[in-house]
Amino acid sequence: MSSMSENAITYPKALVAKLGTQLIAKDLPKEIVELNELLDSPMFKEVEQEQGTPVLPSAGKAVCEMMEVVKPILRTLIANANLFNLWVSSMIPEGVSGDSLGVSIQKHLQEEIVKVQSEADAYFETFPKYFETRAKAARIASEYPHVEECGQLVVEMDQINILFLQNIVREVRNFYSLLHDFGTKNWDKLQSGQSSNTNGYH
Prior knowledge:
By secondary structure, the protein is mainly alpha-helical.
């Protein structure tokens, strides 16, 4: 008969294994398809600015709309990365040397996951900075409407941020593809927690 403490230890690991399996088999492929569709949508295709000085109050509308789409994508990325990290961690057998090829690759993947999570957090910090910088540029453009460079600065800022947001979606898509590729190629080894360096990881 199992004790309550044993159940408390094994249940989370079983749950993580179930969710990790679902992540690889269903969730990541779905996310990749949806992100590809988003990149092909009118909002995230190349956006051409109209010629001339922009109408300042609405010039950043496209950027704002794209940001609202990207924010939940980044939140989902952080959640999925956390789950994948937990899943991989649960596959590393206790007491196995870090010199083992399987374990070393698992740990390398975990380092990549942590890096991506840090980048996602950094992306969130850039959003308010964009509005702060753009507000200053728009104010100057309003004060000096006869100076074309002032208005063009606002346009350039929006174009740069549109490309930046497009690139974020591509990077998230590529990261999901990396996780899915690693998970599917090493499915049996991850499921069994294999750490032997006989065959290695792909």
